[in-house]
User: Fold these one by one.
Assistant:
Number 1:
Amino acid sequence: MIALPRQRPKPIPAVHPLPEYLATGQRATWYAEMKHALQVPWMGVVTMAFAHYPTFFGELWRGLKPLSESAAFVDTCRVLRTEVEQRAAGLAPQKLSATLVRHGYAPRELDALRDVNTVFSHGNPPYLLIATLARHLLELGDLAGKASAEPFKGRHAPDVSVPPVLMEAHHADAPTQAIYADIKATLNLPFVNTDYRAFARWPSYFALAWNDLRDIVGTPAHEAICQACHDQAAERVAALPNPGGLSATALRQAAETDAPIDEVMEVCRLFQWLLPGLMTNVAYFRHQLESR
């Protein structure tokens, strides 16, 4: 039995992500350290939302940094990604490559789409682990893993360089804005995750991709993948090592310095609930772009 249930907050709490371009001082340093440790080119909305609570975020990152650089953490991310991608293939995504070629997409554009997907496919699992770890510490208590961890040596990020170009809603045309509204309504979220805004850089592609996915979201088959991803993340986080000495008591005290503890816990629950779905949807998009 999984001790940490998949729990969508009701109502959805207000979130206040601190964008990278507005981060200064210590929080800008934490952002740079986190991107370097996770080997990702962007800060996830989850960690930008956590940064709204600087004492909480600082204590979490202090203990998380050596864990995020460990072989155990990297291996767990790989397992989560592999499982979701294998399961998402069973949802029978529509193959879009030939359609996109007929629309005029050149091979290099298809490669660019696949590269962007690869970056998010690699980067979302660590963000899910971070959200799960925060929930575990706040709700269940200390980790049971050993205090030492073997560092990961080398590069685990994909060998592509694609700083995401985001199509923000205020730049988007009316059809893309309508898709954003549909995403928020379908996923029951007050914001559009970075991944979708990066894919919308190619509006004609994104319309095809989302229209194929939207009727799958929320079905029993889709939910089963999300639940399995959640369960695996919760189970594996409970056994991760703790080389940074993360403490449930210290993290709760840090959170209470910034806001009522229930507020911070609800924000953690929101992201820990939505990230398995985001991973599943990105995996679905990935299969859509397969050449066969």
Note: DSSP finds twelve helices and no strands in the chain.
Number 2:
Amino acid sequence: MRVKKVINNSILSVIDEKGNEMIVTGKGIGFKRKTGEFVDETLVEKVYHMEDKAEQRRLRELVAQIPLEHLKFTEACIEEIKSQIRQPLNESLLITLADHISFAIQRKKQGVEFNNPLSDAIVCYYPTEYQLGKRCLQAIEREYGVRLNEDEAAFIALHIVNAELNTDMSQMHDMTRLMDGCVRVTEFYYRKQFDRDSLDFNRFTVHLRYLVQRLYQGAMMEDKAEERDEMFRELIRRNCKEHYACAERIASYIATNFDKTISEEEKIYLTIHLKRLNMNEDE
């Protein structure tokens, strides 16, 4: 490995024999090193490599700006997160989460804390990720003696969901607002508030989560042309008129506020979930 850039005495950006850029860390590894020199590999303690070149550049910039211990701490947090989530996580999570955690710790020490306006929605729609966010907060307090408010757990949860869905954070905020809006439309339509802790409500929000994911990834369920499929759709529309009308209200809300269209097939399956939700609620 040859030195590409000396970041500090403990961190180097290097190029391996295949031309891949990596970040290597180790005590004294960058001391008096110069670009182009070979790296003393006996001093290497940790190697960080991103498959995406743009992400590798972001990582190089990040390690120059935050304490190395924050990067190592975040890496340990991500290993815990991976043990609890089956879905693969985008490699960029290390960068975005380390940046967030480091900044949050620094802000807290300066007496500055941010509120998360989507906190309640995040707790409701991403409960697993929110609990993992709370674990991260507990680990931060143990490691650094810094107690962050629970809104930070919601911020961390969004970073995790973002890594699950391979989206960016601005899109993740839009998706969460869309889900929250759909629930509000639903409760306004039926004129009641659903039990957020119930299994049925959880099933409904899981369906909404994947509906929104398909919507943003351009992978809507397509309207099948076979006669039997149209007969099935017509059967649902006729027998579940009230719930289909609610599904149409939701579709209209999405179109008006987010300029996105859901297919008839999606509306039919949404109708089925709305019927199931209300049937069990009424019981």
Note: The radius of gyration is 24 Å.
Number 3:
Amino acid sequence: MNKIKIFLLLFLVLSLSGCSIKRITINATGSFMEDVVTAFFEEEDIDFAKEAVPANLKLLDGLIKGSNYENDDLLLKGCKLYGMYAMGFLEDMDTDKKKEKENLKKASYFYKKAKDYGMKILTKNNDFKNVLDKDFSEFEKMMIAFNKKDVEALFWTAFAWGSFINLNKNSVEAVSDLPKVRTMMARVLELDNKYFYGLPHLFMIVYYSMPKMFGGDLEKAKQEYEKVKQISGGKFILADFFTAKFYTVQKQDKKLFDELLLNIEKTPDDIIPEKLFTKIAKKKAEILKIKLSDAF
């Protein structure tokens, strides 16, 4: 009888600890993923990075699901990597119109997935969750509830959400969310406008380069570009690409368009440790030059 009791007690302990062991394993693997993200950003071979990242994304999906969507670090990595995959390897990376259309459809899907992961983090803040479906004025006032520790989640969620909207401008439902995204990014700028070489300002370059009916203001777009240049010391040339693609075309400034693309071409690949951003900017600039040769 004593042996049976001991066996039952041991079985109970193992059963109860099963979830804890699983959680510990997931958390340990999740911390390792931080190095994976860093190595991904530092990769300079675009083709290699593009081929390598899907396996890591599926690993992240499994870890996130295994954590029951509770691990914020994993959710943030998923948000960041899916958003970067869509922007870096799918948008503006092909001159063939049929292939480009297919890529944009995929990019839209991955931006939404990135946004959904980010929202799982942000909606843990009940104040944010409660105003999502309320008047915009209440949503705007609520932003003060986020502080500096929320910058990464706010930025990458807004980045993915805004990028999704940009690819779905024919959807009234998608475009109606643009003021919310703009407000989230404004809060990021208030908290840390220098985040990742001034990356939040890059988002605003695109926003202010839109038609006036969507909130565009070309003078402000140019100012945002100058801010990125100042913060990064002119090293973050992805800003040059987005300024060329959106601002100069809207402004019809062919001279600046050519200057920006030339600057991208001349910039050393290793000007920042995160070489992938530089290499992506160079590849996109090459394609942009071909696609927009007749845009002016």
Note: Confidence is low (pLDDT under 50) at residues 5-17.
Number 4:
Amino acid sequence: MSSLILFNKPYGVLSQFTPGNSGDQHRPTLAQYIKLPNVYPAGRLDHDSEGLLLLTDDGQVQHHIAHPAHKLPKTYWVQVEGAPNSYALTKLRQGIELNDGITLPAEARLIPTPKLWERDPPIRSRVNIPTQWVEIVISEGKNRQIRRMTAAVGHPTLRLVRVKIGNWTLEGIAPGEHKATTINLPKSAMTEAPRGRNNRPAQGQERRSANGDKNRTKPHARPSNTDKPAAPKPSIATKVIIKPSRGKP
């Protein structure tokens, strides 16, 4: 059995345990929310996106969840500027031509405004321009893909919340909180990716990003015990409801 952590990442938090480049030095990281040892993100979520991020202590599980070859569906609730018509939805479903290739077919449908926590800071609002929520399901992970897809059909993304990866959901997890579970991959799901010490991906393992560059899959190093968190952990008293309200889309 391997550990699996389901984390509700707040807006503005980096999907890593250390700040990284100089532009991220003042952004909060996972280290301020998750104190469990030897767990690392399986995939990522942009700092300006919210919602479900999975972490694990097992390199095989990390590879299985994060690698695009396994095509785990990822469900997003997206608040966009304007109201997409049937043509825009069809384009999203069929595939959008981006500068790094055409996206795979996706699921896209209008949904009622979901009951979510308030975002801090709130989205920008314009009196004369309506907004609409769209549920989009993709099985790949190009850089900032959802935002680029909606912009390409004329509806810039205002808020982006990932609510589901595979069969794992955000339900019952407040922003900044996490819950632990276990996972046991069947043999058919095991990959040939080499693993290093502590069952993590070997340091020499590489993958290719959407732009074709090679990137190390070595997990981000955890901070030392002397590192001081830059922000307090959110209260667990936050009530989270992520089911869309009833009504016509």
Note: The chain has a mean pLDDT of 80.
